[in-house]
């Protein structure tokens, strides 16, 4: 059971109308919603909240004539590609690995696009689903999908980062809006496998700041006895204009050597300013089977120098909630996953948005007092 009084799923696969999908009618094969999850969250000028939901749309019958197929954007439409079954590893339901090369090369079992879902001010009821404002692939640099949006508001401008997937690169792309709902493409801002880019909701020293998370297959070890563990970490970057980013030379949030719960980690919610400093919610992953156990943690960063940690709490803030996904048991394909991606101020508490089990969108009301302990 959740430790918070208000903690529920608000949007899931059954709430998506695929007749209004950007993929509808594009090829001769049926699809289904593998997951509607990992939503960005922001407050609109009318006071309502808005989720920007990652809709992972997958083929109902991916294996045909001895080949496994995936969906790809091409020249304004969508096509299907097929790989011989003896060339692939399908042990992970989210992707399949192409055997035979020196590098790990994979294809996805779904293509993702971003769907704005407007909610009541408390985030608990759906007001409207804005299919006409969906964000879908528009270039070869995102031909395998647009994933995991994060939205930050800075004054009268909203900035959205997304992960764009293609064989060219796994990049971060930036969108902007003047009303929090209609987003326009700006540009590619981070290169290959720099995921979970979170723009701070406010300038520091007249600069934009962001958390980033570069990925790779090789990391260097800290010396024996270090309090840190080698591996993925949450780094920092700065920009004069939100388009051109420079890595910050000081490290950000690093995995601790004493816990396996942060053997892998990455950013969650855009950092927001509190009296104590910048509040950031992030995910830590404990190794388990293929996917691992995803939990949400939190830290406070120094107001004027976010490379300095004011406080990090090692106990999880949120964990996967099987009681919430029990009604969706027939759709479950991963477990032990909560992936927090959005936060909004609501007076004496925060409304926090997460992806639950890579399947649905979870809203939790967390009292501000929790972050003063």
Automatic annotation (TrEMBL):
Where do the TM regions start and end?
none
| Highest taxon in the source lineage | Bacteria
* Gene Ontology MF terms: glycosyltransferase activity; hydrolase activity, acting on glycosyl bonds
A Pfam family cross-referenced in the UniProt record is Glyco_hydro_130
The protein's matches in SUPFAM superfamilies, at most eight in alphabetical order, are given as:
Arabinanase/levansucrase/invertase
Alphabetical keyword list: Glycosidase, Glycosyltransferase, Hydrolase, Transferase
Family membership, please give it.
Belongs to the glycosyl hydrolase 130 family.
State the name under which the record lists this protein.
Answer: Glycosidase
Species of the source: Sphingomonas tagetis
């Amino acid at each position: 059971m959740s430790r918070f009084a208000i903690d529920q799923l608000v949007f899931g696969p059954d709430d998506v109308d695929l007749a209004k999908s950007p993929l509808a009618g594009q090829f001769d094969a049926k699809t289904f919603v593998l997951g509607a999850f990992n939503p960005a969250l922001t407050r609109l000028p009318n006071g309502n909240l808005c989720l920007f939901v990652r809709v992972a749309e997958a083929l109902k019958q991916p294996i045909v004539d001895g080949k496994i197929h995936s969906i790809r954007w091409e020249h304004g439409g969508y096509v299907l590609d097929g790989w011989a079954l003896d060339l692939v590893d399908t042990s992970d339901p989210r992707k399949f690995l192409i055997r035979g090369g020196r590098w790990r090369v994979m294809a996805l079992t779904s293509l993702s696009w971003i769907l704005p879902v407007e909610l009541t001010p408390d985030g608990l009821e759906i007001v409207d689903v804005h299919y006409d404002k969906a964000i879908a692939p528009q270039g070869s640099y995102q031909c395998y999908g647009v994933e995991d949006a994060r939205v930050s508001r800075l004054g009268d401008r909203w900035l959205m980062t997304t992960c764009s997937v293609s064989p060219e690169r796994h990049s971060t792309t930036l969108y902007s809006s003047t009303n929090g709902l209609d987003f326009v493409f700006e540009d590619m801002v981070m290169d290959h496998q720099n995921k979970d880019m979170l723009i701070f909701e406010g300038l520091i020293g007249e600069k934009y700041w962001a958390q980033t998370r570069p990925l790779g297959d090789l990391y260097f070890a800290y010396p024996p006895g270090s309090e840190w563990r080698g591996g993925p970490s949450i780094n920092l970057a700065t920009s004069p204009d939100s388009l051109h980013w420079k890595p910050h030379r000081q490290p950000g949030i690093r995995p601790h050597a004493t816990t396996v719960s942060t053997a892998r980690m990455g950013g969650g919610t855009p950092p927001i300013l509190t009296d104590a400093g910048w509040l950031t919610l992030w995910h830590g992953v404990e190794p388990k089977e293929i996917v691992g156990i995803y939990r949400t943690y939190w830290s406070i960063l120094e107001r004027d120098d976010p490379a300095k940690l004011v406080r990090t709490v090692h106990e999880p803030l949120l964990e996967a909630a099987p009681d919430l996904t029990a009604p969706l048991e027939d759709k479950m394909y991963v477990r032990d996953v909560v992936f927090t991606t959005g936060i909004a101020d609501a007076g004496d508490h925060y409304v926090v948005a997460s992806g639950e089990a890579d399947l649905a969108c979870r809203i939790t009301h967390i009292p501000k007092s929790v972050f003063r302990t």
